[in-house]
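Subject: Re: docking follow-up (fe (ii) ion)

Dear J.,

Thanks for your patience while I sorted out the input files. As discussed at Tuesday's group meeting, I've set up the holo structure prediction with fe (ii) ion included as the bound ligand rather than trying to dock it afterwards. The sequence and the ligand SMILES I used are pasted below, so you can double-check that they match what you have on your end before we go further.
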Amino acid sequence: MLPPFPQDVPTYPLAVVDYECLVAGDEKEVDDLWKAATSLGVWYMKNHGTDLEVDGMFEMGKRTINLPLEEKMKFERGDSGLSHGYKPAGGNVTDEYGNMDAIEYLTIAKDDVLSYPAVARKSYPGTVNACMEDVLKPFVLKSTAINETLLRIFGQKLGLPDGTLESQHKLEAPSGSEARCTKVAARTEPSRVALGGHTDFGSLTILHNRLGGLQILAPGTDSWQYVKPLPGHAICNIGDALTMISGGTLPSIMHRVVRPPPGEQSGLERWSLVYFTRPGDSVPLRAFAEESPLIAASVARMSESDKVKYAGSTTAQEWFIRRAKNQRAKNYLGPETWKASRGMEHRPEKS
Ligand SMILES: O=C(O)CCC(=O)C(=O)O
Ligand SMILES: [Fe+2]
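The structure tokens for the complex came back this morning:
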């Protein structure tokens, strides 16, 4: 049993959305989701129906990340901006000064899970391969189904023609969608930022965490605040790609990971699990203004420089590679590298 999140540490309250009610078409729930997604871009989701798959993923992640470093490094992700594989702590920077991160993680491409035993992007340690069929595949498929439900709702609320958002995120299209298991070691110094402030690169993120450590920087505020993990609840957030497609209607929240909060949780190692849904590699990241009057109105209200940003000069894959590559510690040359790693952050200077 993990100790509870301390009562005397302030947390940012998020809306709770019930996934089963969304699936049932409950209008109030759909409206609650839309309110959370368009105001803050992050919410809790209960009754997501993936508890078994999540447990299996945590076990697989722990087994793999607990392998000797030498073994894991055979599958290291490299510095070219592709994320699949193993990333040791210190592999990325967390801020403009080049301070290194303190989180290690293992990232498995959706394309590799679906093509297994053929390799689409990268090969993985035996501990991953051993559960491709029984754990990875059901986790990826269920997480995808959840995100398809959310995309369908967002598409309707945005006034896009039916299927528009889904067609940018086809399961069979090569994409940066991926599952990630993360670990922050117990010995990490309390002052250290484990994962620097960022917005997620793709469209939708489903996060499962059990100990505190996730913090958000809510728009209009100036300080990082913890989000308290709630048992059985996932934390979902909007990423840059959906911000772009929706013409800014769906904001991607800035967040980061620090060590668990003071008190009983503070000395413990922290594990989390994420599924990122991203558009197909070749999808241009632009506001879908021609397809939706609501998005067109949002673009019309933008400054000229924002209009250029939302006009779509990169594909989803180019966006991802630029951001991921410039976060690599080995590629860090100075504050300009950090700046080049930024996405849709509302406070780009915060880390
Ligand atoms: O571990 C967490 O709570 C969040 C991880 C995260 O933000 C990420 O991997 O992008
Ligand atoms: Fe993130």
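A couple of observations from a first look. The longest strand covers residues 270-277. The two ends are 32 Å apart (CA to CA).

Let me know if you'd like me to rerun anything.

Best regards,
T.
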